[in-house]
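Progress against Task 2.4 (sequence-to-structure conversion) is shown through the following example record, which the project officer requested during the mid-term review.
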Amino acid sequence: MRALAGFVRFAEAVNDVVGRTVAYFTLATVLICATVVIIRYVFETGFIWLQELYVWTHAAAFMLGAGFTLMVNRHVRVDILYATRSERTRAWLDLLSTIVFLFPWLIVLWYYAWPYVASSWALGEESPQVGGMPALYLLKSVILAFCVLMGLQGLAICARSLLVIGGRPDLLPPLRSAE
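Structure tokens generated for the chain above:
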């Protein structure tokens, strides 16, 4: 049981660090987008790489921050079925929904993303736009990182649920918040 609690601490610490770090990508996205607009309308010029950069930062924030979002319970949930239940019943619902919905979806996503990302790396793929961002394979790799981080958090949810079901919620770290 202590090993499960240790795993929960590890997985949530990873997603906490990644999530809080990539949260700054949202600010970067806004600032880069504003810069693109100013350059375009004030100076009447533009840079394709800069336009692509804010798409990259937004994609990275969204994909890499998804595990953190799941950790702090900010994903969509049908609260009408969940909120009124006991802690043990909620743990069962979390465990079953993670196994039935999250893991199969992540496996399918990984299965189809792997050749897509691998071929991009093999080609050293760059932006299809002249003057665009180099190393497009790095952006595509974020899909696999998404699968890893979401899978890690899914395992943490399962471990947390098993501890609650097993009557040992006292071993768990408190749930983290987004603030």
